[in-house]
Write a structure and sequence with these properties.
The chain is mostly helical. It contains 3 helices and no strands. It has helices at about 5-35, 40-65, 75-120. Helix 1 (about 5-35) runs parallel beside helix 3 and helix 2 (about 40-65) packs antiparallel against helix 3.
């Protein structure tokens, strides 16, 4: 088997495994975070979490597929390792950027929810005072 094909197969297996692992980690821990952000609405938290995971898979697996092809033929075993390290390094950077992007968006949603909760007074008004006539 051609070394280039071996490098492609290893790249795909490792990249897909990393993508699945990161997506599951985000899903498991992100659900708890979303439930807090959405004030305990479990169904909505599950739905948003699922949509985020699907988007994460689409973007990352699309990138992995687009980044698969290479312009050069791999001649020796050293070339296999060099090509794999470059390709997997870029995939890891993209996964990290996507993870940080997800955390940033979730944190913004959480902050907005906290701000909305703070705007509502803890106790409703007990009486009304009419405005002063001279003011």
């Amino acid at each position: 088997m051609d070394r280039t094909v071996v490098a492609y197969v290893i790249y795909l297996v490792v990249s897909i495994a990393l993508t699945v692992w990161v997506a599951r980690t985000l899903s498991r821990n992100g659900r708890i975070f979303l439930a807090d952000v959405l004030r305990g609405n479990e169904k909505l938290a599950d739905a948003v979490n699922h949509l985020l995971v699907v988007g994460f898979y689409l973007v990352n697996l699309g990138f992995v597929a687009l980044y698969l092809s290479g312009d050069e033929t791999i001649e020796d075993t050293r070339g296999v390792f060099e090509a794999l390290s470059t390709k997997l390094g870029v995939v890891l950077l993209v996964l990290g950027a996507m993870h940080l992007g997800n955390v940033y968006v979730l944190n913004r949603i959480r902050r907005r929810g906290i701000m909305e909760r703070e705007q509502v007074p803890p106790v409703g008004p007990q009486e009304w005072i009419s405005p002063a006539a001279g003011a």
